[in-house]
Design goal:
The complex is a heterodimer of chains A (412) and B (240).
Chain A: H1 2-21, H2 23-59, E1 65-69, H3 80-84, H4 91-100, E2 106-119, E3 122-132, E4 144-147, H5 152-156, E5 161-164, H6 166-172, E6 182-185, E7 188-196, E8 212-216, H7 217-224, E9 233-237, H8 244-258, E10 270-273, H9 274-317, H10 319-327, H11 332-365, H12 376-401, H13 405-410
Parallel strand pairs in A: 3-8, 5-7
Antiparallel strand pairs in A: 1-9, 1-10, 2-3, 2-9, 4-7, 5-8, 6-7
Helix pairs in contact in A: 1-11, 2-9, 2-11, 2-12, 4-8, 9-11, 9-12, 11-12
Chain B: E1 2-15, E2 18-31, E3 35-39, H1 46-53, E4 61-66, E5 69-70, H2 76-86, E6 87-90, H3 102-113, H4 117-130, H5 146-158, E7 164-168, H6 176-191, E8 195-200, H7 203-206, E9 211-216, E10 219-225
Parallel strand pairs in B: 3-8, 3-9, 6-7, 7-8
Antiparallel strand pairs in B: 1-2, 1-4, 4-5, 9-10
Helix pairs in contact in B: 3-4, 3-5, 4-5, 5-6
The chains are: A alpha+beta (412), B alpha/beta (240).
The complex binds adenosine-5'-diphosphate and magnesium ion (MG).
Adenosine-5'-diphosphate binds at residues 13, 15, 20, 22, 40, 42-48 of chain B.
Chain lengths: 412, 240
């Protein structure tokens, strides 16, 4: 043990000395590891960030929500054509369901239309206009930065009122003061009654509430599209998470009745849940993870080969030194340890630089994508780099350790 | 007391299809405190013999007893331990670590012996003072003259207080005057009671020893005591 520590210290000393003696070579060799570790840390950070973003994005849907829809959202079990052949869900279905369902906290229909929204000379093109009722707000966790959602009166009366998602509001009203203004959709005026606070559910793409506007559902059919163009979705919120299953069972029963299905017919609707999305996301993140780690692992592997190569060169160059050390009593283990230490030190320095790079880069990337720098990234980088050093240094060190002292001393 | 006993030692190298008998059949005994010169022309097998005596190499045939222990059948690590504790090498080409200063070069065997840092430093400094290099501790080999480098190597050989000092042509790379100084240093070391085995191909260097083993073609030709041993005068470079 004592010997081991002395030898380790000697190994470190030799390592630093030889790195200093071959500066350019060490820098070039280290570069491979720097790149490898940077990419591993960045990738794991990015994956973590993506995962976090997905999770928060999904959380905004609410875990107590059910979405009764013609389409199965996250499941590929049912063939697409079968889903397509289902009858559309209509506002009538919604009304009947709402009347019959006892368990939900709130029920609201949604139907969407792609359109442009204008304010004076500003236009936001191709956004999703959600048509719904005043109950919709109770089925979501949406919060407001200004104003409110449209009320029951405005909803039932199908008034020309509109609630803007934060991004839409920012584009149409860069300096604010949206409330009370009139925006136009296909030439029809809508009065702004509320602006949503930023929800940050970027994973949901165009279904991100930040990028949507909301109007009473009747307006969609009155101004924008015919009632049978698209199936509606019935948004249902259970009273609490324990009630989700029961609410779902009830919904299936009621919907089967409304849709006039006999006992031997399959459901011609789907009850979607956040859970389904979560599963899909976890699968996606898993694939990204594997692909990402494979790619970064590859770059680290290239770095490791570089180290191995340079260590072989180093052993060759220092054959005489090895001979001297053996002549004065260095055991195989000491020589093995010396070269592995050297390789590990080179890699550790590389890992350290790589880590700094990765932190700086992820701070930059953070401006565009939500990455999260993990504390364990530090540990990961150091462990990975030392392990790389030890593994790639082993073969060269082993060659050094088993050199014949007489041969080695003779080497010029 | 015999420190070295070898019996019918042979070292055979296979070069292509040919066998080279570097040592054909060598038997000898060396006592503690002896000063022995191994003499012979180039290629006669001196270095081969010295490598075997120094446990750097193992014989193809024969038995080697060192301090009563049979070392001819030891493995690499056991031999390394013997080299570290019992043997001090001095080579023709000095064989110092180029990047390390004199002090670290001398410390090296003690590192592998597991001697703690402070004691190590102290002993290395002592050994360097012994060879007259107290003021050169932090010089690297390329900042030292040939003679000084050989003194560092001698200090390194002495620092572990080995049972024998093995010197292979220690003056071979030095001018006559410097060679004399080094031989004076060996004489001192001998007079302090150390066992020295010196390999040389020069008659007058061999005559510094008290016994000469003449070797030719891998065989001992003659084993003789030196009648008028040449005793170099102290040059004042070394202090005891
Ligand atoms: N590794 C080796 N492989 C083959 N032949 C060797 C080897 N080492 C030494 N020899 C041969 O053994 C003989 C003795 O060599 P050596 O002991 O070095 O001689 P000396 O030191 O007396 O000059 C020489 O003929 C040399 O060529
Ligand atoms: Mg020789």
């Amino acid at each position: 043990m004592k010997n081991f520590l002395f030898e380790l210290r000697e190994g470190l000393l030799i390592a630093f000395r030889s790195i200093r003696a071959n500066k350019v070579r060490s820098i070039l060799t280290t570069l491979g590891i720097v790149i490898g570790v940077t990419s591993v840390v960045l990738m794991s950070t990015a994956i973590k960030g993506i995962d976090n973003a997905f999770q928060t994005g999904v959380a905004s849907l609410g875990s107590d929500n059910l979405y009764i829809d013609k389409w199965e959202w996250f499941n590929n079990d049912i063939p697409w054509w079968e889903l397509r052949n289902r009858k559309n869900l209509t506002l009538d279905d919604y009304k009947k369901y709402k009347e019959l369902a006892k368990l939900p906290l709130a029920v609201a229909p949604t139907v969407w239309n792609f359109n442009n929204v204008k304010f004076k000379d500003r236009v936001v093109e191709g956004l999703i206009i959600q048509g719904t009722t005043s109950d919709y707000i109770q089925t979501t966790n949406l919060t407001f930065s200004e104003g409110r959602f449209f009320n029951e009166l405005e909803s039932n009366g199908g008034r020309n009122v509109i609630v803007l998602g934060s991004e839409v509001a920012k584009k149409l009203f860069p300096i604010g003061y949206a409330i009370g203004q009139e925006v136009k959709i296909r030439g029809h005026k809508f009065k702004v009654v509320g602006v949503l606070a930023e929800q940050g559910s970027w994973v949901m793409g165009n279904f991100n509430p930040d990028k949507q506007v909301f109007v009473p559902v009747q307006n969609i059919f009155k101004y924008l599209q015919s009632e049978n163009l698209r199936s509606i979705t019935i948004n249902v919120r259970a009273k609490n998470s324990k009630m989700v299953e029961a609410t779902k069972e009830e919904a299936i029963g009621i919907m089967r009745k409304i849709r006039g299905l006999s006992y031997n017919q399959e459901n011609d609707f789907s009850i979607n849940q956040q859970e389904g999305l979560l599963n899909t996301i976890n699968q996606t993140v898993g694939v990204i993870q594997i692909a990402g780690l494979f790619i970064t692992g590859l770059s680290l592997f290239v770095g490791a080969i570089g180290i191995m190569n340079i260590m072989f060169v180093s052993v060759k160059e220092r054959t005489k030194e090895i001979g001297i050390r053996k002549a004065i009593g260095a055991k195989r283990r000491a020589i093995l340890g010396q070269f592995i230490t050297e390789s590990a030190v080179i890699c550790m320095i590389g890992g350290f630089i790589g880590l700094i790079f990765a932190i700086v880069l992820s701070l930059i990337i953070n401006q565009f994508l939500p990455t999260s720098v993990q504390v364990d990234a530090l540990v990961l980088a150091i462990v990975i780099s030392i392990a790389t050093g030890v593994i790639s240094g082993f073969a060269p060190a082993y060659t050094a350790a088993k050199l014949d002292p007489v041969e080695a001393l003779r080497y010029e | 007391m015999n420190i070295i006993t070898i019996e019918h030692i042979a070292k055979i190298y296979q070069v292509g299809s040919e066998e080279v008998h570097a040592l054909a059949d060598v038997s000898l005994k060396i006592d503690k405190g002896e000063y022995v010169a191994i003499m012979g022309p180039s290629g006669s097998g001196k270095s081969t013999l010295m490598n075997i005596l120094g446990c750097l190499d193992t014989p193809t045939h024969g038995i080697y007893n060192f301090n009563g222990v049979n070392v001819s059948e030891m493995n690499d690590n056991e031999l390394a331990k013997i080299r570290n504790k019992e043997i001090g090498f001095v080579f023709q080409t000095f064989n110092l670590l180029a990047r390390s200063d004199a002090l670290h070069n001398v410390e090296l065997p003690l590192i592998y012996a597991g001697v703690p840092s402070s004691e190590r430093k102290e002993r290395a400094m002592e050994a360097l003072s012994h060879v007259g290099l107290a003021d050169r501790m932090h010089h690297k080999p390329n900042e030292l003259s040939g003679g000084q480098r050989q003194r560092v190597a001698i200090a390194r050989a002495l620092v572990t207080r080995p049972s024998i000092i093995l010197a292979d042509e220690p003056t071979g790379n030095l001018d006559t005057k410097t060679g004399e100084d080094i031989m004076a240093l060996f004489n001192e070391i001998y007079e302090q009671g150390n066992t020295i085995i010196l390999v040389t191909h020069e008659e007058y260097i061999a005559e510094h020893a008290e016994r000469i083993l003449r070797i030719r073609d891998g065989l001992i030709e003659k084993d003789e005591q030196v009648k008028n041993r040449y005793i170099p005068k102290k040059n004042g470079a070394s202090k005891i």
